[in-house]
Amino acid sequence: MKDRVLLITGASSGIGAATARAAHRENYQLVLAARSGDKLKALEHEFGAENVLTVECDVTAMDDQQAMVEQALERFGRIDAVFANAGVGGAPGGFSEADHHAWQRMLMTNVYGVGLTIQATLPALRRSHGHVLLTGSAAGRATIPGSMYSASKWAVTGIGYNLREELRGTGIRVTLIEPGMVDTPFFDQPPEQALADRDIANAVMYAINQPQHVDVNEILVRPTPPREEN
Q1: pLDDT the model gives residue 9
Q2: Which secondary structure element, helix H or strand E, spans residue 199, and what is its range?
Q3: What is the average per-residue pLDDT within 83-112?
Q4: Which residues pair with residue 5 across a beta bridge?
Q5: Most buried residue, 12, 39, 170, 187, by most Cβ within 10 Å?
Q6: Could you tell me how far CA 63 lies from the centroid of its own chain?
Q7: pLDDT at position 2
Q8: pLDDT band at 152, cuts 50/70/90?
Q9: For residues 106 and 158, is the Cβ–Cβ distance under 8 A?
Q10: How far, in Å, CA of 83 to CA of 91, rounded?
Q11: Is the confidence at residue 214, as pLDDT, over 70?
Q12: Catalytic residue among 112, 149, 161, 206
């Protein structure tokens, strides 16, 4: 896999960083993008700079996304897979009382930013017959009272389905990664029953490492419910 290039947005922590570590262990060349340059540089130091490109990127800005792709192609010459993972959480208060400014930031990142990542990387992926992976959520398959976050992940589910139809016959694969509760910096307090970020990284690597004729459409991963006491 040492010639394959994987681009990850939201790569500085949580699922993105865990996936970067898993891919690095399998000798992928990495393009790691996030807002936090310091955290990206720490990953670059951890992995060694030879096979890693770090890019500060606001996924809601097309100029940033296009610059990210240009730098990736200049450095590695190709992009084989893109993990559109950048996302932010919602605000408390439901539809009645939530901070609408927080909604705007979340929707721009979770939905618009995903769309921009896809649009910016598709020309390179068409050349490589590559793979698009999207971080959806179990919340994008459920009805959660008052949750705009859940609605944003429903949108990501729709993006994945619709993108797959647009790309049918091109050789490009599309995978929705849909985690349940994951213990990441996404939460201020660690959830009691949760997956680890490396569990989701394992799901990403499973999908991406399948032979070209195998298209893993969706992976829904939830924590195992606690055992009931007898």
Answers
A1: 98
A2: helix 197-208
A3: 93
A4: 29
A5: 12
A6: 19
A7: 58
A8: very high
A9: no
A10: 25
A11: yes
A12: 149
Cα–Cα distance for residue pair 83/47, rounded to 1 Å: 19
CA–CA gap between residue 30 and residue 165 (Å, rounded): 27
What is the layout of strands, in order, in the sheet containing 29-34? 52-56, 29-34, 5-9, 81-84, 131-135, 173-179, 218-221
- Express each pLDDT in 41-51 by its tens digit: 999 999 988 89
Q: Across the strands, what pairs with 83? A: 8, 133
**Secondary structure class of 31 (helix, strand, coil):** strand
Instruction: Look at the block and give the residue holding tokens 């996404």.
Output: 186
Q: What is the rounded CA–CA span in Å between residue 85 and residue 14?
A: 10
To the nearest 10 degrees (0 to 180), the angle between helices 14-25 and 197-208 is: 50
Decide if 160 contacts 134 (C-beta within 8 A).
yes
* pLDDT recorded at residue 150: 94
Q: What is the DSSP string of 58-127?
A: -TT-HHHHHHHHHHHHHHHS---EEEE-------SSHHHHS-HHHHHHHHIIIIIHHHHHHHHHHHHHHH
Neighbouring C-beta atoms of residue 193, cutoff 10 Å: 12
Would residue 85 be called left, alpha or beta, if left means φ above 0 and alpha means ψ between -120 and 50 degrees? alpha
Alpha-carbon gap, residue 130 to 6, rounded angstroms: 10
219 touches 195 (CB < 8 A): no
* DSSP bridge pairs for 173: 131
Q: Does the active-site annotation cover 149? A: yes
Quote the DSSP letter at residue 225.
Answer: P
- Can you give the pTM of this predicted structure? 0.93
